[in-house]
Structures are given as structure tokens and as C-alpha cells.
Amino acid sequence: MKFIFLLILFFANSVKAEKQEIILSSTTSTQNSGLYDYILPMFTQDTGILVKVVAVGTGQAIRIARNGDADALLVHHRPSEDLFMKENFGTYRYDIMYNDFVLIGPKNTNATFKNLADFFIEAGKFGTFRFISRGDDSGTHKKEIELWNAFTYRNPSGEWYIEIGSGMGAALNMASATNSYTLSDRGTWLSFKNKGDLEIKWAGDLIMQNPYGLILVNPDVFPHIKSTQAKIFANWLISSKGQKAIGDFKVDGKQLFCPNADKTNTKSLLACPAN
Amino acid sequence: MNILNATFHLISSGDDTLWSIVALSLRISLSATLIAALFAIPIGTALAMGRFSGRKLIIMFSSSLMALPPVVVGLAIYLLLSRSGPLGDYGLLFTPTAMIIAQSVLIFPIILALTTEAVSPLEQNYRRLLKSVNASKWFRLRILIIDARFSIFTAILAGFGRAIAEVGAVIIVGGNIAGSTRVMTTTIALETSKGNLELALALGIILIFLAIMVNSIMHIFKSMGQKYHRESR
User: Fold this and answer.
1) SS3 of A162, please?
2) pTM for the full model?
């Protein structure tokens, strides 16, 4: 009797899997902001295709797609995306949207800096200064390492530099609890609810741009990939309706992502998102 | 105060999403407990009965497995069920089934070790008697399980407790997909990462209540059984 029950349980799941659905391997920054909760119901209503989002760091998201466990990939680290394409795991990459990275730090501090280069070069010399690094191979972590290397030509080290190996939320929670600095994407920062005494200390430089790309996983490598449905999803995201939905998404009245699939429509980074 | 308010608000709002998450948590953890118990109880009892060389080693090994970190179990199951893994063709990754498998593997050693522990003293008491009536192996197994059922019951509860509270394994093999593989613990992790600390704690309180409810229901059954047990003597 029990075995029959178990069998039913197992098969109940595999029957459900026959529905029209795709798995999207993506980043916590897009998930935590609430973007998917806003745009995916519209897509499902238009097409009948359900998008299941697995949100992890960019490094892990790419790994999931490389294993053939996702039909599409939406991440934010261009060099890793290009490598994924070069190794033939993807069929096509689409520009979808962008926002920017922001430098987060405590409101009340005597540490001052004139520009971004000044901050990164002088970091660690401010006395009680602490910097929380994601240290988890995510898109944001990769960007942060890029910034240190761009301004100081080396990887940071010292007691003030704390690698926590966790997600953006955990890093912001820790920065909030210890009044430290950290690098965040604007989406996660704006929707983050435990800001405490933190604020944006610097934003707007072109080097801080944070573009998101969608890649369709190659069905020649993994025959089970639902390439047709994934293609429909990509076409919807770059359509005027999908792009408008991304631009319309707001948290507390603030736009989080700027659609950029349409190359003829060029806005400057500083104009969008408006802070 | 804030947290109690948040909890109360969460429960009283009668949010459908919340209840489907609660239901999925229960479904997954109860299924995992059932599957693990189905295998662990007979094997654990057999281990207590057995007199073969290497038995002590197996018992020691199985109790060490109680210390398995959920993340490691999750990772192993992930690699097994991944499309690039040996069981990839079934497409079970990121489904509730994968989560049931992971939790079953995680709590199997717990129920196994605790069952062996519970049956061993009883087995020593019964050994001569069962031998004198020339009882078959199956009969001995059944008698021991039935007579140790109250201690075995505690083993099952311990297994369930670990399953329902666990987050590391299910977040890897389930993917924390909204409306599909999102359970209580992964929701708590997600809300914490969004900085919704009150909401996360409120969900934690609901999880505790859930565990208390399941435990009390099982304890009622247990005491009913014990009463019956005494009266039938």
C-alpha cells in the first residue's frame, strides 16, 4: 500500500513536467529586486509558457547552464557570457537591460573621497574603514575585483577587507550591521529593506555599468533543451512589450532596470536609471 | 513586538502563497521521512540483530553519517540528477521529487542509527527466548520492530525534524523556484537576503508552530498506542 502511494507521488511530479515551461538560470540581483515577479506573469499570460527561475550567483548560474540544467541564462558578467558563447554552450546572446553598480557605505563617516579612483586607492587607510566583499564568484564580485585592479593594479588584502562568500543580501545585511562599505547592484540596493545607516556613497561612473544578457542554451549540446520555448521567451523580452515591462518595473517609485535591446534607442547611463 | 505583529499579520492575511509553501514543505518532508523510515527501520533492526563481522564498523559508519552537512548531500544529489549526471535523463533536478530524494538521503542515517540504538537492548533481552522457539529471521525482525515501536517513533520524529528544518540541500536541488520548489526554509533564506528580517523571522515562527503541530499529532498517536499496549496486557 505504502509503495503504491510512493509510486503515485513520484509519477505525479513527472506528469506535471510535461507542461509548457522553461528553466531560467539567473542571478539573485534580478530575483531579489522582484523584477521576475513583475514581468513573468505577463509573459506567461501572453504565451502560456511558465518560466521557472533558479536564482544563484552568476558563476553558479553559468555552471548550471553548462550542465544542461537550464534552458536559458540571464546573467551580468560579459566576459563570462562571451566565454560561454565561445565554448558553444549558447546559441545566441541578447542584450536585455542594464543598470549600474553603486558603492554603499555608512552615512556618518569622516572618510571622504573625491572620486572613485580616490576611494579605491585610499581604501583601508581610513581607520575604522571596512569593506565587505561578496567573495562568491558572482557578477558583482567579479566587477568588484575588476574595479580594485583597474584602480590599484592588485587584489585588495588586509584586515579591513572582509570576504564573506555569500549573496548580495547577506553582504548588505553585514554592511548594515557593521557600518561597512560594499559594492551592490542598484536593483538589490533599492529593494533591500534593512538599509540601516547605509547610503549610496558613489554612483554614475561609466565603469560602474551593469549590463544583463540573455543566452539561449545550445540544444545541439543538450538535446532535451526546450529551445523553441526559450526562443519565444527571448523574443518576448526584446519585443517592445517586454522591454516596456522591464522599464516600467519600479520599487518605491524608482526604476531599477533600463531596457537596452533596441540599439537605435541610446540613452546615457546617467540618465537611466534615474536616482 | 514588530516580529509578533508581522507573524500575526502573515497568518491572518490568509495569503495563498504562504499556505502553498507550507503545504509543499509538509509534503516534501513527510514523504522524505516516510521513504527514509521505510528503509532505515528494517535495516537498522537487522543491524541490531546481526552477529556478523564488520557490524560494529557499519553501525559506527552509519552514525557518523548523521553528521553529513546538508549542503554536501545537496551537492551530491545535484551532480547525480543534473542533465550531465548519471540520472540526468529523468529530468528530476529542480523538482519537488529531487528535494524528497535529498531529504531522504539526509535523514536515512539518523533514523537508521537511532533504530539500531533503540532495538539493541531489546534484542539482547529477547535473544534467548526467540532462539528457543526457533523463530525465523523475518519473525524476529517483526517482533523487534513492533516491540521497539515507541523508541523507533522517536527516531522518526528526529528524522522529520531534521528534514523540515533543513535548507542547504533543498535550495541546491530544488532551486527555490517560486510556486514550484519554494519551501519554508528556502523562503526564510530568500527573505533574509532581501533584508526583510521581520518577515523572515515571522516565517520561522510559523515553521516552529508547524513542527509543534506535527509532533503533537504524532505524540497523540503514540500515547494512544501506549494506552492500548498497556490495556492489552
Assistant:
1) strand
2) 0.87
Give start-end residues of each CATH 3.40.190.10 domain in chain A. Answer: 21-99+209-271, 100-208
Cell representation of residue B53? 563481522
Other Cβ atoms within 10 Å of B16 Cβ, number? 8
Fold (CATH) for A21-99+209-271: D-Maltodextrin-Binding Protein; domain 2 (3.40.190)
- How far the first Cα of chain B sits from its last, in Å, is 52
Cβ–Cβ pairs < 8 A, chains A and B? 81
What interface predicted TM-score (ipTM) does this complex get?
Answer: 0.82
Q: Could you say which of B91, B177, B192 has the minimum Cβ distance to residue A169?
A: B192
> Is the CB of residue B34 less than 8 Å away from at least one CB of chain A?
yes
CATH number of A100-208: 3.40.190.10
- For residues B119, B120, B125 and B129, what is the CA-based torsion angle, rounded to 10 degrees? 80
Q: What are the chain A neighbours of B96 within 8 Å (beta carbons)?
A: 13
* Chain A nearest-CA residue for B191: A32
Q: Are A72 and B193 in contact (CB under 8 A)?
A: no
A169/chain B closest Cα distance in angstroms = 4
- C-alpha closest to that of B36 among B181, B211, B225, B163: B163
Q: What is the pLDDT of residues B53-99, one digit of tens each?
A: 888 899 999 889 999 999 999 999 999 999 999 999 999 999 999 99
pLDDT in tens, B89-103: 999 999 999 999 999
Q: Which residues of B touch A168 (CB under 8 A)?
A: 193
